[in-house]
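In the lab's daily routine, each protein ends up as an entry in a very long ledger. A line of letters takes care of the sequence, but it says nothing directly about the fold. The three-dimensional part falls to structure tokens, numbers that each stand for a local backbone shape. The outcome of that step, for a single protein, is printed below.
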Amino acid sequence: MEQEKQQQGEKIGARDDGKWGPCEIIKKTFEIYRGQTCTFTWIQFVIVFPCTIFWLLNQYLTRKWIHDYWPQPPCPGPCPTPPPPPPPYSDNDSCEKFFPCEWKAMIAFVALLVLGFIYWINVVGALFYAVGQAYAGKTICFKDVIAALPCLWKGLAATGLWGYFFSLLTGLVVSLLGYLLYTFASVSFLPVPIVCLITFSIGWVLFFFTTTVIQMANGVTVFEDGTCGLQAFCKALELLKCKWCVALGLTIVFFIPEGVLTVIVHAFTWACAGVWARYLFFGVLANLLSVVLQLNVMASALFYLSAKQDKKEFISIAHFPCSQSEAGYQPIGV
């Protein structure tokens, strides 16, 4: 049985010399997916799809909170008449109606954030592990992926927490910059479209840099046993030298469909007339988005492996269950 898996795995792809561009990485991503369709389909429905649901719901709550509680910049010209104050209510009404809603929203947001983080760790671990096994010329089943995840949780949790911190810091910087620019535009001659363009450009550059380093750090954490957290990020920056053009190409290819699907989900799902139609539309779009997200993570795993080959460094899979060999400079196939 093991020999059959080995022979089947060797039919995937072609030799990697570390010089792949975005097109070659995407092509090999689809080849690996087709070579082990059953395994990656199970990963998609059991791990990636729920993670996508949590991610979309978190985005919805975050946008709602920003809309409700973010301070508004001064309006140019005469401001509209403020709405009349709400009718007075007693302290009991305040405790029973206002605060419970805020606390429920806070609890839901934190719960979704924690569940999304847990699922994201498993998404990264499962897909990087499966791609790494295909890179070593092996074919695995979903049971093998599940068995390999526990040994990756600790390292991916440390790296993931730092990744969340850097992502949050990036979001705060972009939000603060956008607020300041919009405030400046409201009291000066700077057009609002120019403000939006500047904010979007800076935000996209920071988003590209942050997500690229995080994904490379995930690869370091999975394949380099004992390296996680800030150490993984330092190693990721070292591997990314002379690879930023390839990373930019991959980001553009996957950012466009992910962004379009996310906008469609938030813009049109809640506009559906019926409740069941809304849920059905949301489920279909979330499933499509999860497929794109899965291919993105798989391409990131191949990008890491290609960068390691370019540096002539060993790629070890010996610390995984059922992996008592090292990939070295082995191809994805022959």
In short: Residues 79 and 211 are 40 Å apart (CA to CA).
